[in-house]
């Protein structure tokens, strides 16, 4: 288990109209026929059928596959409701955006959405580049696949390992989503939608090459399996083998995803899908030496750790079916299972140490054993520790949704009735190479292992491998289970004069259990899964509401507001009295405006929100126990724009000012986070500009150029010192990206050659950092994680 678990509306409308007014003053818009009929986006309020993802439009939807703009998404309502008619903030990263940016990881996709960032790299993500997503300032390691929940449990790399060979789009629902998705963090959720079988045969093969000996091969095939096209298939597969700018780093990934769909008749569909993935990385933990508290200049390539293999094997299976009773009523069910196995060496640089020059108690220690008396006044060695661990996780889920359309006088209703059941089981164990001699900590009254089994390498010229580690021994084991049951009802009502009302309730039942080995198990050699003697349980029931109001006076503008409540569990966190910490709760007010310009080719959303999360767990200093004394507030404006401004010219603009602070803490139990202090890991300002232009006329037709700029503001470093002092601020940074692509035909095949350059000016920056104590002597260290240097990615893709 990683160290984070072990140790620890009106104003928005005015802003949006001001932005729009400025744009209108600079150029005249094409005439808009308010009374003209608009293309339909499917049957009113229909449930997405089994042959579509949760948010993919129905076959009747005229979706342009090369568009940056998605007309509808059901992630917010579970019905095919146009985004302009949804009183919620929903953003979609379309397939064309993913292709233009050559997106292969989830963080690359999420940079296109305001109020979203990633973090928790290094020690927080098993040596990966990131492990959590921040939505409106609140962290989560949970994401959804076509509405199926995938939890990280703080130990696997579910977010980092998300593959894109079969991804159609990435959707973000902002704000609490408990009414439809149960116990999730209040900032929002990320939903990945996958590609579906097609009646038209299509095949593709793509080869990508990149910096640091990176290559990735992707193949896909889809079409009918019989003459009447009632049986359809799809297969997506990829293999990736990448080096790294960090010494010893690598990534290897094998992925394939078959889908079989049976269109039984015009009203009934059945779908079976599988995903298999095997991921291997070398864990990299950021480590920056400090001299009198100032960072020592080091190259990004230096690895003070060691070869630290991480393997994760995942198998997903799903069965879904849908049936249309008539044009107004339909039903859909999904049954899903996800099994994950993780094993990691977890070798991490820990301290700047000095060569041991005094006698230690028995047993005898190998040469150059660290004294672990840090910070060091000499500073010639780096001490590393190894804590191998394994984790097995099983997730089971089923969801049933019934959607009906009916009228009551002038009111048009879209009614959703649904229920879901979600269960997870996980079991894991942790070992350590620290020798098992005992030392007594008087103020705790317990025995702890003497930290003397680490490995050393040179601070000034790291060598690999370093001195040998001591033998590994079990440190503790853990297990957890939870049953989640939810029942929900929602009604979308169309009123006269362009008004629409959204209202709903959810009943949530949560029963969670956790088991651990005894705190002194290392003294009795009982730190394995056979000795889970400490047992804890927590049972919670809650009702969460959501209401929203939207007014669409014209086809191109919608004003909206909503109030939502959230509910999120605090998995595995134990209080000093031996009980599990109760779940957190949240509530949010939001108001905004949505504009569709240029005949609906561009959509802009401006919003302002105020979100409060209560019952936040705070870890007591020097212990593994938590208490719920915390509360936090997040608020600020957000702006998103996507679409095609002129033929061939597409753009994305995103900006957020995320003001998230602690509003209630306990200065005795948690002096490091006083009231008013900012959340760690969350930048106050983020911005994204990305644009492409594709020539529309010969002879340059098919040629595309583009680029983007990403700004990430300063963010507080993670403070684990237990002291209230002005902690290190991770500096802001901005990076520039470029792309060039050329699409041409050879016979009946389409070929696309593309080159993307990330961080064009090779900006050196940090993405994450933590403070473990106040630096007081010449040599010390601070965990920091470097961002990627300049990276090139070339691609050649054939479609036929």
UniProtKB/TrEMBL annotation:
**Similarity comment: family membership:** Belongs to the TonB-dependent receptor family.
Polar residues composition-biased segments = 49-60
TonB-dependent receptor plug domain spans which residues? 83-188
Q: Which organism is it from?
A: Methylocystis heyeri
Q: Which UniProt keywords apply?
A: Cell outer membrane, Ion transport, Iron, Iron transport, Membrane, Receptor, Signal, TonB box, Transmembrane, Transmembrane beta strand, Transport
State the PROSITE patterns in the record: TONB_DEPENDENT_REC_3
- A matching Pfam family: Plug
Give membrane topology per the record: Multi-pass membrane protein
Q: What is this protein called?
A: TonB-dependent siderophore receptor
Its localization reads: Cell outer membrane
Task: List, in alphabetical order, the Gene Ontology terms for molecular function in this entry.
Answer: siderophore uptake transmembrane transporter activity; signaling receptor activity
Signal peptide segment? 1-25
* Matches recorded under NCBIfam families: TonB-siderophor
Region of interest (Disordered), ranges: 34-69
Asked if the keyword Transport belongs to this entry, the reply reads yes
The record's GO CC annotations read: cell outer membrane
GO biological process entries: siderophore transport
InterPro entries referenced in this protein's UniProt entry, alphabetically? Beta-barrel_TonB, Beta-barrel_TonB_sf, Plug_dom, Plug_dom_sf, TonB-dep_rcpt-like, TonB_sidphr_rcpt
